[in-house]
Amino acid sequence: MIGDNRGLTLMEILVVMGIFSMTVTVTSGIFLLSNQAQRRVLALSTAQSDLRFAMEAIVREVRGGQIDYEAYEGSQGGISLPTPRLLIKSASGNDLEFYSESNPTVCPSGAYRCLAVNVNGVAQSLTSPGVLLEKLVFYVSPGNDPFTTNPASGLYGANAQPTVTVAMQIRTQGPKPQDVFIMNAQTTVTSRVYVR
Amino acid sequence: MSIFTRSPEKSTTTKKAPRGQSFIEAMVAITVLITAVSSALALVQSSITATRVGGAQIVAANLAREGLEVVRSLRDTNWLQSQSFQVGLVDGGGAKAARPLLNLESGIWSVSFASTALTSANAAVYLTTSGVFAQADAQPTGSTVTPYNRVLTIDHLCRDISTGDERVVGGAATCLVSEQLAGLSITSSVRYRAIGGSYRTLTIEERLYDWR
Lengths: 196, 212
Description:
Shape of chain A: rod-shaped
Number of strands of chain A: 8
Strand content of chain B: 25-35%
Oligomer: heterodimer
Order of helices and strands of chain A: HEEEEEEEE
Number of helices of chain A: 1
Helix content of chain B: 25-40%
Largest sheet of chain A: 5 strands, antiparallel
Structural class of chain B: alpha+beta
Largest interface: A-B, 53 and 49 residues
Largest sheet of chain B: 8 strands, antiparallel
């Protein structure tokens, strides 16, 4: 037999085991950390893409459509601000309502709130599962329709171009508190429809 | 007694004694290991940071667009009120830097030409308890400070009456006697504090004329 066949000393075994366990601990730590980071990045990017999608959907409808003043309750006295829902008569003639929905049959997150759009009476969610809508407010200006006249006075309801400010806050759902992110976003859009 | 080298008397039967690892070899191995570990950690950290910066960019882009839309809304409203398109959008004192302000009761936007700049304290955007981003001369009660600052620059677009040539007039200057105000060149800038404390600025620009 060639070489040394006297096996390993206890010291050698201990050193090898020590190095091995250290390496395993460090490696699994990194694995867990990157796994957690991956989950957080996923939650964040889902929230961001939902936010952007919902925002752009609202902006597009306000730009091309008209505010449905008739559908707002008590529109005689103007819309009370801030309003939780946005009623739009879209460019293609659909009746749209953007609002905060809590019905679990509409929301993909079940019991949690989502941003929904009701198109001609059919509601659907604009946000994905795992994304919760915390706040949603609209500032609609002017409070009365600037494009129809009051039959009594013969005057237009207002002399201002319809403008909507939309502000929302969404939250990601996570198994751990550090996976929860809150995002606020706001934008304003002016209608491109010039009636008079 | 060394752990890594065998005593010569144990391996007298072999021609070459296995000498184990030298100090240099061990150092090289440790350096390679540390480099691999730290680069993996840096990658994980930078992906989180990049995603967060992406989120701040979305918010900043929406706030910047808001600034442009407010000016458009005011111009369109001026038409409906049968007045000159630039009413409320051109400062009598020649200021071009402005802030869009939202009246939280009436929902009506206006533009304030009170002295401001992107780094000024009065350009700060606050977040109210109802989730609305608002700029104000004084911080609204109950609101929180956000990492965003916003300023509009409303420059004049002057058209030469005889030649029809158009130019953007910035600074404190206004149109010449031989020119007329044809429109406004609006720049909406949002500065935000990225993670790590550095500032980034997002700027968008639009030209609005006195015609639809």
